[in-house]
Every structure is written in C-alpha cells, then in structure tokens.
Write a structure and sequence with these properties.
Layout: H1 2-16, E1 43-47, H2 50-58, H3 61-67, H4 70-75, H5 79-95, H6 101-107, E2 112-118, E3 123-129, H7 132-135, E4 148-152, E5 155-161, E6 168-174, E7 177-181, H8 184-195, H9 206-213, E8 221-225, H10 227-230, H11 234-239, H12 245-248, E9 251-260, E10 264-273, H13 284-289, E11 298-303, H14 307-319, H15 367-373, E12 378-389, E13 396-406, H16 414-427, E14 436-441, E15 444-449, E16 456-460, E17 463-467, H17 470-477, E18 491-495, H18 497-511, H19 525-536, E19 540-549, E20 553-562
Antiparallel strand pairs: 1-2, 1-8, 2-3, 3-7, 4-5, 5-6, 6-7, 8-9, 9-10, 10-20, 11-12, 11-18, 12-13, 13-17, 14-15, 15-16, 16-17, 18-19, 19-20
Helix pairs in contact: 1-5, 1-6, 2-6, 3-19, 14-15, 15-16, 18-19
Length: 564
C-alpha cells in the first residue's frame, strides 16, 4: 500500500499545475491545509514542505542507488508495479500530459495534504500552497483548453474525463491554494471549504479528530488512517506488507508523524483502540535493555510475557533453530488393494505374560520447561541475536540468547534440568551427553551441555540466561552490573544495520549460490533483491522501536540513526 501511495502522490502533485487560470490573490487562510479536505476520507497524508521532501529525494544518493538496484528491478516486474503503471498512464491521459519527476519538482508546493477516499479506485483530493509565479512555470498550463469549466462557491474549476479509462481530473485554485481531485463533487466540496465555513471537512470526522487529539504537533510528514475502514478494503488486505490485518482490527484509527534531521529520522505512531484495555508499561524493559551487548545485531524486550511465549521463544531460537512449520497434508489416505495379513508365525514368540516397555518419546518435550517458566509470572524477557565470522573467514556463524526475569529467584539448576528434559529424546540415546559442566567463558561462569550441540545456561538470582553461543552469553553477563535504561515501555527492539549488513550479505550469497549460475535470471531474493535494498539503505546505521501500551492507545517510537 505504501508504494501505491507514493505513485499517487507523484501523480497528484504533477497534475496540480493544470490550475493555470488563477484567481486574484487573497489573504492566506487560517488553519492547516487539512481543513480544506472534504469529510469521508480513509487516509490523509500531510507535509509541512512537500517541495523540500521531493527535492531531497531527487538529490539523494539513495534514489540513484535504488533505481539501479536488483530490488527495483524485481519490483518493476511485480504485479503491483504493473497495476500502478496502468493507473499512472490513465492519469496522464486524463491530464493531457505525462507526469515525470522533472515536472513534479517544478510544481511541488510547500504545505500540502492528500486525502484518499477510495483506495481501489484511487479517488483523492490534493491541496497545496504554491506561489502564483510557480503555477505558470510548467507545460500543464497549455492543456487548460481541453478541460470543461465548472464553478463552486464562486470559484471556477475545470474537469476532464478520459474517454478510454473514464478517469476524471478536476482542478482549481483560490489564492495561493491549488486543488486537484478525481471526482467533481470532491473538488466542489473542497472549494466550498476553502471559501468559508459551511461544508464538513475531514477534521470533523470522528476518527481523524481522535487521531489528531491523541498526538502533539505534526511532524515533517504526517499520515492519518481510518483503520476501521481500511481493514475492510480488499486492496489493503492484498498489499499490506506487514500482513497483520487481524491485529489491526482492535484499532479505530492511527496517526504517524515523521521528524527528519541530519542525524536521524524519528517516527511517532499512535493507534487508537476501539475498546480500552489495561495499560501495560513497565520499568523492567529498561532493566533488560542494560544487558544488550554492543555486539548484538538484533535485540527484543517484552514486559510481562506469558510463560508459554517465553518457553516457545527458548525452543524456537535455541533448540529447534532449523525447524520449519509443516504444511498440512491435504492428500487423502490410500486404501490397500490387497488383503491384509492378520498375523504370522513370528507372533508365536511374543510374550503376553509381561507388560510391554513404554515407548520412548520421539520428539522434543517442552512440558517441563513450560511448567518451570509458568510457575511464577515473568517480569520481562530479552532476546538477542548476533553474527560472527567463523574461524575459516568464509562462513558466518549466527548466535542467539534469551534472558528471563521474574520477581523471585530461579531455583538453582531447575532451568538446566528443564532444558535437558526438552532435548533428551532427540539429541541423545540412553541420556548420554546430558551432563552440564561449569566453565569459564570471557571471564564469566556458565554451565555448558556436553556433546556436539552448543547450549549454555547462566543463573543470576532473578535472571536466567540460555544461549547457543557462549561468547554472546558472556557479553550479556558482562553488562549485568550496568545501570538500567531510564525507560518504561511494553516492548523495545533494535536492529543494528551497520553492524550486520555485510555479514548478512555474505550469508545470503551462500543461500542463493545454487541459483546464481543462470544468466539473465530474475534477481535472487536474498543475495540480490534484499541485499541490494540493504545497500541502498547503507546510511541507516540502526533502527530502534519503543512501544508503550497505555490502554486506550498504543504508542510507538521508531528511530532510524543515520551515518553522517
């Protein structure tokens, strides 16, 4: 959906300059440009200075790198891209001139806003503030003779319908405002709002007012969404890249503000719940963040996690790391065509006067771990991952660690016993190799499980640590005496892109190696598609996310640190 919006914004701003017949200059209207947008929108995008954002993108190295990347090549072959191109061509035909980035740069205004009313049909209203001198400095002013004149609230505007696609382009201007719409009634309503009170603007919509009221001053770019309506849209369900539509149904609306500086890009998100829930923020998140070592590429912290979630995390990240969920078998069972054999003479040797031996479990047994972890509520949970170059200098070795915290101390040795019971049916025969040995790693005392599998545990009172990478565990323990981070949150996470980028690229080249020999091939997903996107964003050193569940709202702060 984000890519669709980007294309729509470019189309809109390109067509704005078609308002060539200007009205006499009038005093600037009080309030924000969103007050000019008619009610009924499902999404509103607002920029303080859209022209500066467009100029920044055009002059950025990221744009040049991305347009030449395998990621862009793969995107340009996608179904979404082709649908966007069709819409682009239809708008160009309706406007009478093809939109391009050069023209977009000429007409990108200052304070601007876009409201989408139907995502599937791309019905929108766009309004921007643009000096009168710039309105005439483009080729679209020569196409006004192809439009039919209309009038609303004493202000003329112009409409054109492409006979092939039936796309509508309507535009008008008043003072230093330029307006563009894809429906004649939306344009008339926007001009009526611009001329004075009387019509209903999007600022009076309950979802929009609730979103704006839950935030402070808008950022350089603001996106407000009517989630109650958007989650019902088939186009959103198809193209929403996060794939979490069921999770979004609990929210009525959301708003996101983007603040741009030379050192970072910060995004403040607020989700408004339909039904208020108990607030869930805790200083325990800050206490766990102090443990994160500098070598960690990824870290995540949860406040008050459920016991089952903690047991599942330990199992998935440390034990069955290569396990993948099995697809359900949809094949009907076969029926034997021959006659079934009831028995044979070998059955005569089977003793029936002795109880048969109980069968040995053939899979991992998570029951003991779940019982231990769930015996007392957890206050926080930390998951850390890191990669390191192998001794041969060729392969990259990944490692994971999990730390669990609770109010009382963990029973000594209980966590080790639970892990032994978990892996014993799969990793060993006759319990061989299930002994824990106390060793020193990086100056820290830990317990390692003997055998070929890497598994280590450390117990520190209210904290228990488990890992498949002992050096990573030692790095966590080295931070155990560090002061807690001054933060109260429900969840915190971070990814250090600058630290892991080259290592992940090396790993993906091995993953895609078998398919690399083909010539003129479609970009390989890991080593070319994703790796080229990572290269495009190489200036992003890290990304962190802090979530605060306040009951009525869910607030998220996402910060992208940039390399100067």
């Amino acid at each position: 959906m984000n890519l669709r919006l980007a294309a729509v914004i470019a189309i809109i701003v390109t067509l704005v300059s078609a308002a060539a017949r200007l009205q006499p200059a009038q005093p600037a209207r009080d309030g924000r440009v969103t007050s000019v947008l008619p009610a009924g929108a499902v999404l509103v995008l607002e920029a303080k200075d859209f022209g500066s954002l467009v100029a920044g993108w055009n002059s950025s190295s990221e744009k040049t790198t991305w347009l030449g990347s395998a990621n862009y090549r793969a995107f340009s072959q996608s179904r979404l891209f082709l649908r966007l191109k069709d819409a682009w061509d239809e708008f160009a035909a309706a406007a009478g001139i093809p939109p391009d980035m050069a023209l977009l740069s000429e007409i990108a205004g200052g304070e601007s806003a876009l409201a989408l009313y139907d995502i599937g049909k791309l019905e929108f209203v766009y309004v921007t503030r643009l000096p009168a001198a710039r309105m005439l400095e483009n080729g679209l002013s020569r196409t006004r003779g192809r439009y039919e004149p209309r009038q609303a609230a004493g202000t003329p505007f112009y409409v054109r319908i492409d006979p092939a696609s039936r796309r509508t382009v309507a535009f008008g201007s008043r003072g230093d405002y330029l307006l563009l719409a894809t429906r004649e009634d939306l344009m008339a309503a926007a001009l009526t709002l611009l001329s004075g009170p009387g019509a209903s603007s999007v600022e009076r919509d309950a979802w929009f007012a609730a979103s704006v009221g839950a935030t402070e001053a808008p950022g350089d770019l603001r996106l407000a969404m009517n989630l109650a309506a958007l989650v019902k849209e088939p186009h959103v369900r198809s193209y929403w890249i996060q794939g979490n539509i069921p999770d979004l149904r609990q929210y009525t609306s959301a708003i996101s503000d983007l603040f741009v500086s030379p050192d970072d890009i910060r995004e403040e998100r607020t989700f408004i719940r339909a039904e208020e829930k108990p607030a869930r923020v805790s200083p325990a998140v800050g206490e766990m963040l102090r443990l994160v070592p500098d070598a960690a590429g990824l870290f995540r912290v949860w406040a008050a996690p459920a016991g089952d979630d903690a047991a599942n995390l330990v199992f998935e990240k440390l034990i069955a790391t290569s396990a993948a969920p099995e697809m359900p078998d949809r094949t009907a069972p076969r029926i034997a065509s021959g006659g079934s054999v009831v028995g044979s003479e070998a059955d005569l040797e089977t003793r029936i006067d002795e109880e048969s031996r109980a069968p040995r479990p053939s899979g991992y047994q998570v029951g003991a771990l779940r019982q231990l972890v769930g015996s007392e509520p957890l206050t926080a949970m930390l998951h850390v991952e890191a990669t390191a170059a192998a001794a041969d200098g060729i392969f990259v070795r990944p490692g994971s660690a999990v730390a669990l915290a609770r109010a009382g101390e963990w029973p000594r040795g209980a966590f080790r016993d639970a892990l032994s019971a978990l892996v014993d049916p799969v990793w060993t025969k006759a319990h061989i190799g299930m002994q824990w040995h106390e060793v020193q790693v990086g100056g820290q005392t830990v317990f390692q499980l003997e055998g070929l599998e890497r598994l280590a545990v450390a117990e520190r009172g209210r904290l228990v640590f488990a890992t498949n990478d002992s050096p990573l565990l030692a790095a966590l323990l080295a931070h155990a005496s560090s002061p807690a981070v001054a933060i109260e949150a429900s969840y915190a996470a971070g990814f250090r892109h600058g630290l892991e980028r080259e290592r992940f690229a090396a790993m993906t080249r091995f993953i895609d190696h078998a398919a690399a020999a083909a010539e003129n091939h479609e970009p390989l997903f890991f080593s070319e598609n994703l790796a080229s996107l990572s290269q495009t964003l190489s200036r992003v050193e890290s990304a962190t996310s802090i979530v605060r569940d306040r009951g009525a709202t869910m607030a998220q702060t996402v910060t992208y640190k940039l390399r100067r």
